[in-house]
Automatic annotation (TrEMBL):
Gene name of the encoded protein: mnmE
Database matches in PANTHER family: TRNA MODIFICATION GTPASE GTPBP3, TRNA MODIFICATION GTPASE GTPBP3, MITOCHONDRIAL
First-listed, main subcellular location of the protein, grouped into a coarse class: cytoplasm
Native source organism of the sequence: Acinetobacter tjernbergiae DSM 14971 = CIP 107465
Described function: Exhibits a very high intrinsic GTPase hydrolysis rate. Involved in the addition of a carboxymethylaminomethyl (cmnm) group at the wobble position (U34) of certain tRNAs, forming tRNA-cmnm(5)s(2)U34.
Name the UniProt record assigns to this protein: tRNA modification GTPase MnmE
Listed EC numbers: 3.6.-.-
Keywords, ordered alphabetically: Cytoplasm, GTP-binding, Hydrolase, Magnesium, Membrane, Metal-binding, Nucleotide-binding, Potassium, Transmembrane, Transmembrane helix, tRNA processing
CDD domains documented for this protein: trmE, TrmE_N
Localization per record: Cytoplasm
Length: 479
């Protein structure tokens, strides 16, 4: 190791060290265009904000106000003028000189009155003065490309705006403040450290075998794999919080499916009658159970029928069942039904214990108590949807089934992040096999390089342009 030192640090470290810097440091992108967009939702309100960003932001704002601009970060009252000098609106102008702005460019915020007609007219005037209409997410994209934030933080802004619960908003703020990025960067640093050791071993072929076999690299690899796994677990909670769970209620007609949906939703959303075949269409309801966002779906009862409308309802029910994250299979405890028989008849291919909860309903009409148990390897629970018996236990079973256990420091995450971590783990497993089974240094190094690229996609270090376009394209305009 000592012999390796000098050469190694002079050569490989240079290359890998630059890589480390590129992911920790900032670089700046020069855009020629100045973009403009209405940043507040279009509608009637006291104030409407229009944002300008780019090299001509100041010049355009000066032409609009026909005056010099206020001092940086100080509010200045100005009139907003049309081409013929007539006053269109008046309001506050705020200037943020580069690089200390949201995008890292010169930014001007024009706070006029919040009405769609005047806001659109002001935006049109800015475009006449040389600005370009911003595309969805273009301000955030520039902020990302100018190193003002990484991809995870940019996504967290969108998630904060779209948050549907307090818990989701809190975890979005945590991601925005860098909680998630810090974890990823810590693992990336460990991975780069491991790559340094492997690259060093390859450079000295006469020592390669010993070096690979001495256990040090394996120990480092263990540590990286454990660290990725730990982040994966936290990110899974954040992803559940953001994307929620698709829960579908299915069963025979009259089993009490719609009653269960109403009880879980806390209001009379679906029609309930004692006529078998009441529900025909698919019905969605967004609810939150123990803080977990859920889209709950009620479906038509499954049975053989000659009724064309009901047949179509059943076809749609089966489609929903096949796509569900979790299926609540409801049956009436008083009918002597074998709960799995229906599942075998209608969706045998989708019978997995981790996607299915069996629910024996109407326990109020039996002498059986509401409780959780096991039935042929599946979770089973007795409830009364009508009398609200066993429903809290059902709610707990649903969230536990989804593996939802948010902690105080949960950060928001997306499926994209989990996919990237899964690929990272695959490359790390490959690296382990090359190391342990084949002792093949070059192949270990290549797998580790791919693992680093996959992990780097999360914060945007190694993201392809089309991925960036997809991510920012889903943001709203003016962000
Ligand atoms: N006693 C009792 N009756 C229930 C319970 N749950 C539902 N019911 C009754 O069972 C009947 C059918 O309930 P629904 O909720 O409409 O059943 P469903 O499964 O949606 O039926 P379809 O829409 O026809 O497929 C209604 O008369 C409900 O009041 C329960 O827990 N206890
Ligand atoms: Mg129904």
């Amino acid at each position: 190791m000592v012999i390796l030192g000098g050469f190694f640090f002079g050569y490989h470290l240079g290359f890998l060290f630059n890589m480390t810097l590129s992911f920790l440091g900032e670089f700046k992108m020069q855009y020629q265009t100045t973009i403009a967009a209405i940043a507040t939702p279009l509608g009637r309100g006291g104030v409407g904000v229009i944002r300008l960003s780019g090299p001509k932001a100041y010049e355009i704002a000066e032409q609009l106000t026909q005056k010099s601009l206020p001092v940086a970060r100080m509010a200045g009252f100005r009139q907003f003028c049309d081409a013929d000098g007539s006053v269109m609106d008046e309001g506050i102008v705020l200037c943020f000189p580069n690089p200390h702005s949201f995008t890292g460019e010169d930014v001007v915020e024009l706070q006029g009155h919040g009405g769609p007609v005047i806001q659109n007219a002001l935006l049109a005037r800015l475009l006449d003065l040389g600005a370009t209409a911003a595309k969805a997410g273009e301000f955030s994209m520039r902020a990302f490309e100018n190193g003002k934030m990484d991809l995870v933080q940019a996504e967290a802004i969108a998630d904060l705006i779209d948050a549907t619960s307090q818990a989701a908003a809190r975890s979005a703020v945590r991601s925005l403040q860098g909680a998630f990025s810090t974890k990823i960067n810590t693992v990336l640093e460990k991975l780069i450290h491991l790559r340094l050791h492997v690259e060093a071993a390859i450079d000295f072929p006469e020592e390669e075998i010993d070096f690979l076999a001495d256990g040090k690299i394996l120990a480092l690899l263990d540590d990286v794999q454990d660290s990725v796994q730990a982040v994966q677990q936290s990110a899974r909670q954040g992803q559940l919080l953001r994307e929620g769970l698709q829960v579908v209620i299915a069963g025979k007609p009259n089993a009490g499916k719609s009653s269960l949906l109403n009880t879980l939703a806390g209001h009379e959303r679906a029609i309930v009658t004692d006529i078998a075949g009441t529900t025909r269409d698919v019905l969605h309801e967004k609810i939150s159970l123990n803080g977990l966002p859920i889209t709950l779906t009620d479906t038509a009862g499954l049975r053989e029928t000659g009724d064309l409308v009901e047949q179509e309802g059943i076809r749609r029910a089966i489609k929903e069942i096949e796509q569900a994250d979790l299926l609540l299979l409801v049956y009436d405890l008083n009918q002597g039904d074998e709960p799995l028989q229906l599942a075998q008849q209608y969706f045998a291919d989708h019978l997995e214990p981790k996607r299915l909860l069996l629910i024996g309903n109407k326990c109020d009409l039996t002498d059986q108590v509401a409780e959780l148990s096991d039935y042929q390897g599946f979770r089973h629970i007795r409830v009364s949807a009508k009398q609200d018996m066993g429903v809290q236990a059902l709610i707990d079973a649903i969230t536990a089934h989804a593996g939802f256990q948010p902690e105080e420091d949960t950060f928001i995450a997306r499926t994209r992040h989990l996919d990237a971590m899964k690929r990272t783990q695959c490359y790390l497993s490959e690296a382990r096999e090359q190391l342990v089974v084949f002792n093949a240094g070059e192949l270990v190094a290549e797998s580790l390089r791919l693992a680093q690229n996959a992990l780097g996609e999360i914060t945007g270090d190694f993201s392809a342009d089309d991925l960036l376009g997809k991510i920012f394209g889903s943001f709203c305009i003016g962000k």
